[in-house]
């Protein structure tokens, strides 16, 4: 296992409630979410169906819907919820400290 | 029910989704998918996009590959066509001589390109795009420096022109109608699309009828009614599609702009269903019979009809949705609009422009947008509003400061 580290992704205010933003780090890209309950999560940026960025998708409760073909994932677990997606999304631990969102990658 | 199994004719988008859904819903009897193409079910949208312009030699993007079909216990009969339906004995006859008894039958036969016949000796040389092999044939003509003419300024024609430009060809689009994208998108979006193509070097001849197409000295010469001539190395025609109804007509099923289906996608024979591009159906949101040629509709209807084949009788009524890729921009349309509808613009700045279409009663019936991938979110929200039969105020729709999500909750 490669070493993991906590990376500052954004400020909590950068993401509206029930929304998602894109976060790029090095050559990797992530989607960082804030659910309707105000919780923060992070997943790989691209949909597992085709290479389409989920930050363009719609957050509904704790579900993200990919805008390309409307596949859905459960945000906290990354599990694939609706065709055409069938491969789960990788998730990353998130912590919030003094108004900043960190993800462990 | 007896033990005859489910038979699906047409191994495309709708057929493949229906087969998989029959299994998801627990049907344990036989499922047979009959397709006259030699491939496992594959996606058509990439044919006018990556398959033409990608650097690598294209391969079909499969919907259900053979291992997956095997795992689901779906029998694929490929490279064989259904040639007759015997409704009395519940059997489908195959060109190869086989017979498939069915409990319930699904027609998912799709559509074929509308053929154009023009005066001149080269009308028969024009290329069309529907199948994987068609894409290979077109791709083989797209070498740098070649001149490509596309007849028809619809989505497939425009995507083909963009792919031709990407391959370094000269591209000219000839559209007989007064503007491109007459069907499906409002004029403002069509104008943006046209400008984008022009900026990428596509030439347009719009609103001019075509007199003839001939072959002269190894090139094609298209004569236009204004006296001008367009010379090129290949002609690709994309002027719409005709639903494939041969089987249905021959066995006496009712037709109406395709195989006529009811709101549950059953045909005039209750044991035969239809889904996708081949059928028309009454849409509850629009109060009229429509036929769609759209990827998501084929997918939705394929999934939906599986339940009804198993006895559900659930009406279908998903909001129509269509997307097209134009260079680095995307275009999406949700719902159906008519020229008489009121249009409201929401300017999304860098992300693009979003148009809402309200009917005479102020009900949101459609939304269309062109811009970056980010417009997908907005169109999806608009779709939810359309589904709710919402009557949002034009002011709130026009104000980009008001989140569409807020209108939804209200
Ligand atoms: C080039 C291209 C680009 C497109 N791009 C987009 C896009 O960007 N966005 C979008 O929303 N939509 C797009 N579409 C539309 C979308 O692909 C179609 O709406 C969808 O494929 C329809 O699915 P279907 O299952 O109804 O028909 P099809 O996918 O056409 O499948 C029907 C199948 O049935 C077979 N068949 C017919 N008759 C018989 C018979 N008697 N026996 C056996 N087999 C038979 C056919 O050969 C075919 O394989 C595009 C279509 C094309 C052609
Ligand atoms: S790319 Fe996400 S659902 Fe297809």
Q: How would you characterize this protein structure?
A:
The complex is a heterodimer of chains A (105) and B (410). In chain A, strand 6 (63-65) and strand 7 form a beta hairpin. The relative contact order of chain A is 0.24. Chain A has no helices and 11 strands. Chain A is an all-beta fold. Chain B has 3 domains: 6-112 and 241-309, FAD/NAD(P)-binding domain; 115-237, 3-Layer(bba) Sandwich (FAD/NAD(P)-binding domain); 328-409, 2-Layer Sandwich (Enolase-like, domain 1). Helices cover 24% and strands 29% of the residues of chain B. Chain B contains 11 helices and 25 strands. Chain B has helices spanning 13-24, 50-53, 66-72, 132-139, 155-166, 187-199, 246-250, 295-309, 375-387, 394-398, 404-409, and strands at 6-9, 31-35, 74-78, 82-86, 91-94, 99-101, 104-107, 111-113, 147-151, 170-175, 202-206, 210-216, 219-224, 229-232, 234-237, 241-243, 259-260, 272-274, 279-283, 288-290, 321-326, 329-335, 342-347, 352-358, 364-371. Chain B has a 5-stranded parallel sheet with strand order 3-2-1-7-18. Chain B has a 5-stranded antiparallel sheet with strand order 21-22-25-24-23, with helices on both faces. In chain B, helix 1 (13-24) runs parallel beside helix 8 (295-309). The chains are: A mainly beta (105), B alpha/beta (410). Chain A binds chain B through residues 18, 52-53, 56-58, 65, 67-70, 83-84, and chain B through 17, 20, 296, 299, 303, 323, 372-374, 376-377, 379-381, 405. The structure holds flavin-adenine dinucleotide and FE2/S2 (inorganic) cluster. FE2/S2 (inorganic) cluster (FES) binds at residues 47, 49-50, 52, 66, 68-69, 71, 84-85 of chain A.
